[in-house]
Amino acid sequence: MKAKQFILGTLILGFGLFSCEKKNTSPESNQISMHLIGQDNLYGGSSEGFIEENYVINDSITWNALKAQMDSKNDVTYRFNEQHVDFSQWTVLVSIDEIKMSGGHAINYTNIVENNNNIAVTIDKSFPGGNATTVITQPYIVVKIDKTNKQVIFN
Q1: What confidence tens digit (pLDDT) does each residue in 110-126 have?
Q2: Backbone angles phi, psi at 12, to 5 degrees
Q3: Is residue 1 assigned to a domain?
Q4: Is it the case that residue 151 has pLDDT exceeding 80?
Q5: DSSP-based three-state secondary structure for 27
Q6: 20 found inside a domain
Q7: For residues 109 and 34, is the Cβ–Cβ distance under 8 A?
Q8: Residue 104 — very low, low, confident or very high, per pLDDT cuts 50/70/90?
Q9: Residue 51: exposed, middle, or buried by beta-carbon count in 10 A (0-12, 13-18, 19+)?
Q10: What distance in Å separates the CA atoms of residue 70 and residue 29, rounded to the nearest whole number?
Q11: What gap in Å lies between CA 134 and CA 13, rounded to an integer?
Q12: What residue numbers bound the domain in which 124 lies?
């Protein structure tokens, strides 16, 4: 009799454990596609006034002010893939690296992921492997992503 109760109890417990819905404890995340607007270097020797900075731009006033500041020493934004952005559809992300004392440096976004509460941007900085030109540079990247109001975290 005790054996039957043990087997019945084990079956009920097993059924209960296997029928429980497994909850996904990891946050959902989606890869976001980015559209490159511009990527190069500023050559003004810091006269543009940028330090190592990241920007999230959602309006044309800020966008035009950023371009004017980037162009304050040398005209660089004329090489952008687009000059006018429809901010009802797009958000612009900009990263400007610190000033470098040689050429060959670059900055890139390797990954942009939308999580439940934010957007995480992974930044990759590359540097010359050997001899490089002696010129003061400041790498930058400008991309647009689908419009978002979520917090953007640059890593």
Answers
A1: 999 999 999 999 999 98
A2: -65, -45
A3: no
A4: yes
A5: coil
A6: no
A7: yes
A8: confident
A9: exposed
A10: 33
A11: 73
A12: 28-154
pLDDT at site 17:
41
Question: Residue 103's pLDDT is what?
Answer: 85
In a domain, 122, yes or no: yes
CA-nearest of 141, 138, 106 to 35 is 141
Residue 136 has which token pair?
Answer: 């003061």
The Cα–Cα gap between 96 and 41 comes to 9
Count of domains forming the chain: 1
What's the rounded Cα separation, in Å, for the pair 135 and 43?
8
Q: Is residue 13 part of a domain?
A: no
pTM given for the model = 0.79
pLDDT in tens, 29-82: 899 999 999 999 998 888 899 999 999 999 999 999 999 999 999 999 999 999
Helix (H, G, I), strand (E, B) or coil at 19: helix
How is residue 108 written in tokens?
A: 């890139």
